[in-house]
Amino acid sequence: MAEAAEISRPMVGSMSGAPVSGSTFRNSEYTREAMESSRLTESGGRESAMYGPGGQRQTEMKLMAVEPDLGAAPERTKDYKGRIRTWPGLLLLLAIVAAAVALITINAIDVQDQANINAQRYENAAQNRRKIKDGLDDDNVIVSDDGQVGNPKKYPDMGCELPDYQSKNGQIFAVAKNGTEVPVGIKGLNWFGMETGLAIPFGLWENMDNGTSVYEVAAFLARNKFNSVRLPVCIKNILKDVAPDKSLINLNTNRAINIT
Predict the structure, then answer these.
(1) Contact present, 152 and 142 (Cβ < 8 Å)
(2) Same domain for 124 and 210?
(3) Can you tell me the distance from the alpha carbon of 130 to that of 33, in angstroms, rounded to the nearest whole number?
């Protein structure tokens, strides 16, 4: 076969299209550049066809997903609820927290009230155990600031005035400073113990088996209309200033008594 000759064609001028002498393109180079030029031309044509005046795409269109109902109001931007909303969740969280705080507070108040009721029941039961059983009820019971019943830290000042007792016509009268005279019937008892070397009234040791407190003795006397208590004393103990025996008094249930 004859050797393939290299095909050459004249180079076209850029302006007049006339052949330029002395210059040729190889066929392979011409073909590659022509294809690239054609490709660029087509791409530019397509891109320019997609955009109109002002750079707006001519292929853009508005799509409607659902045909609107007849007579319905035109749709607005704020009608679309696709954006994530956080305020309903925040309101729900605040409501849950407020409900939890309210329930905890109510439960704490109920627990405190029940604890106070239980403490009061205990103190009433403890006072009832100390009470001298005579079938009568007290008109007034002293309750301390710490809740203890019938065991005061300090006895209140009753504001009583010691009258002048006088005997007239075989009867005792209580004469006040303003001259008022009231006949008095003495109903009393003797409370022994201070005349001994122990120098303390008996019966105040109070334990689970026996004994009582000064308050309960006084309450018993008041309920039964006693108005006099005689305490025998020892002159020697008074002269020597003998202190009472602390082992014979329960200081926990006689908090208002000072025996120092």
Answers:
(1) yes
(2) yes
(3) 123
d(CA 215, CA 141): 10
Considering the domain boundaries, does residue 240 fall inside one?
yes
Residue 171, domain extent: 161-185
In this structure, is residue 64 part of a structural domain? no
Inter-residue contact 150 to 130 (CB < 8 Å): yes
Same domain, 152 and 222: yes
108-140 pLDDT per residue, tens: 999 999 999 999 999 989 888 888 888 898 888
Per residue in 149-172, pLDDT (tens digit) is 999 999 888 777 788 989 988 899
Phi and psi torsions of 228, nearest 5°: -150, 135
Dist. CA 117–CA 49, nearest whole Å: 91
Q: Are strands 171-175 and 181-184 parallel, antiparallel or unpaired?
A: antiparallel
| Domain identity same for 224 and 178 | no
